[in-house]
Amino acid sequence: MELSNREFWTAVHGMIFGALFLLAFSGGLAGIYSLRSQWVSKDGLKERITRLKWEFWLMATAAIGTVFTGTYIVYPWYRAPAPEGADLSQFPRNFLLSEPSLADWHRFGMEWKEHVAWIAPILAVAVAFIVHKYGPVLADDPKLRRMISTLFILAFATAAIAGLLGALITKAAPIL
Q: pTM score > 0.85 for this model?
């Protein structure tokens, strides 16, 4: 199997960075949930905090990689203007807008991906920073754990919706 340059970068964007963030979510959420001083010994808490710091920074990096490759590498190919009389199937944005039944995929789906999807890495970095800064305090502060969990769930939901929309848009109008 051989991938074109565009297929390679689209795969890096969605199947590597995006999937890494989305798949790591459950482990991160379970790690935060189980971070309770009554459930973990002092040595166990130290090990768990160190692991969580690495995991959350890796997830934040994956989220940043996803939006960076999507915004600056893949998206310009999607948005490329079609020359007069060109085959619109080679120009995804123009193709979607030319078909009334598909136009909402651009109007809603790509608008979400262009703008709202940036919330995911911002929230992921915020969670990684809080875990890094407060570390062992998280084991004794249920309100802080709930706040982190809420921010993390919002980051996941934003990224999951963007990923789903991206997959559906790519199915309707692939970047060739």
A: yes
